[in-house]
Amino acid sequence: MEPIVKMTNISKLFSGNQVLKQVSFEIVPGEIHALMGENGAGKSTLMKILTGIYSKDEGDILVNGSLVDYKDPKEAEQDGISVIHQELNIIPNLTVAENMFLGKEISYSKTGILNTKAMRNETKRHLERLGVKLNPDKNAGSLSVGQQQMVEIAKALATDTKVLVMDEPTAALTDREIETLFGVMRDLKNQGVAIVYISHRMEEIFQMCDRITVLRDGSYVGTENIKETDLNQIVKMMVGRELGERFPERQVKIGEERLRVEGLSNTGLFEDVSFSVKQGEVLGVAGLMGAGRSEIFETLFGARHKTGGRIFVDEKEVKIKKPYDAKKAGIGFVTEDRKSEGLVLELSVKKNLALPNLKPLSNWGVMSAKAEKSMAEDFINKLRIKTHHADLQVKSLSGGNQQKVVIGKWVGINPKILILDEPTRGVDIGAKKEIYQIINELAAQGVAIVMISSELPEVLGMSDRIMVIHEGRVARILDKAEANQENIMQAATGGYKHVKTNGQ
Ligand SMILES: Nc1ncnc2c1ncn2[C@@H]1O[C@H](COP(=O)(O)OP(=O)(O)OP(=O)(O)O)[C@@H](O)[C@H]1O
Ligand SMILES: [Mg+2]
């Protein structure tokens, strides 16, 4: 079949850095084509060139056999090419419906007045197709990251699409939403839509895609039919070497109780949450989107006000009213939303790494530039953050590398307890393993780790115990030995009635 999009020998230079080198990529109608590669390989950049967000330095783009050179995404959209971007583009102070129809408002043809009723109804209809019930008049800023992602997806589907680029659409979603989304993707595929699918979740790729194209360091490595390849081959193409075990083994002696939470409540969000984490232990936290996982830990951290409950660190009760109190008690928190909470995008990698670490680096209140630089470089090496130098703005890093900066921020303060909310979201398979190794090292140093994750293989692969949250309550706490995909999902969907959890 003739490709609907054919990109040949695309090259791109960003401030002296060759991020794409003679890359070719094509896609035919009715296929789901995975675009894979490590963080910073150039996937998003290639797609931004296709859709006119960036201009290319070299190469040709054919759409339906004709040469195109889109000046902006609107032109691409007119040819039926739409994108769901990796970074959310929701405008927080507009409503859901206003976001959906931004730039393509529906108005009454005679008067030109905006037809808000039609837009509201259309918004509802597109969201319902994705199984999402949301009030179109709600402020988009008040939605969870997952809900915002759903609005973005609905927005892309609202146009008459022939080519749909999905840049990590599932990173913020959990299993149930992902299944719905996959259903929609299958429908689109059957209607002949070509889908470019970017994801670091290997299981998804093998479940959904027909072909895979791999990029490495800005170069094209190859294209494989999914039926004729396997995970090992793809990983090898991506990282250029064998990766070995996905979840590195942890040999840690679990020690005394580090953190104990008794009856923590934030009425309306969650109730009566009790658990404990020991030195060197990794407690995985699973649950569906909206179950209240992040809210529990944001409250514990003092970023939200609790309505009840007590918190103990090393057997001593601590009063946490604001994040500062939590930090003083030795608690670190890697938030799920790196854009709004984790990072200051305008600042350099160095400054971001130094932000929570001001104390140890400053001498009578003056931060030593030298100390700041050497610490930043240390982290860049340790976490293998792909950046040309420590002074680059964080926003110019690829998504996965931004995530590593967020983690680096907190590792430096030597917390007693480290809460990681979706620590490997958007991170490639090699870097994921590096993050797991960092988690293991921290555990070996006696840090108690809480890892909230929507990726079940990761929760199962990394946790000593797993706490499953269902509708704002602890549904079950499972030991590593008894935990599996089925009993976690059962508890997460409310199928397991286990009322009394005393955190043991
Ligand atoms: N606007 C920009 N200015 C400078 N460099 C950039 C810019 N956008 C991307 N880069 C660089 O280009 C390279 C490729 O980035 P890109 O975002 O395309 O990677 P990716 O494959 O999408 O990675 P990820 O899986 O982390 O999303 C990276 O080294 C990145 O730092
Ligand atoms: Mg990307």
From TrEMBL:
SUPFAM superfamilies in UniProt: P-loop containing nucleoside triphosphate hydrolases
An annotated Gene Ontology molecular function: ATP binding
Keyword annotations from UniProtKB, A to Z: ATP-binding, Cell membrane, Membrane, Nucleotide-binding, Repeat, Sugar transport, Translocase, Transport
Domain ABC transporter: from-to ranges: 5-242, 254-496
Annotated InterPro entries: AAA+_ATPase (IPR003593), ABC_carbohydrate_import_ATPase (IPR050107), ABC_transporter-like_ATP-bd (IPR003439), ABC_transporter-like_CS (IPR017871), P-loop_NTPase (IPR027417)
Family annotation (Gene3D superfamilies): P-loop containing nucleotide triphosphate hydrolases (3.40.50.300)
Pfam families (alphabetical): ABC_tran
Superkingdom assignment: Bacteria
Name this polypeptide is given: Sugar ABC transporter ATP-binding protein
Source organism of this protein record: Scopulibacillus cellulosilyticus
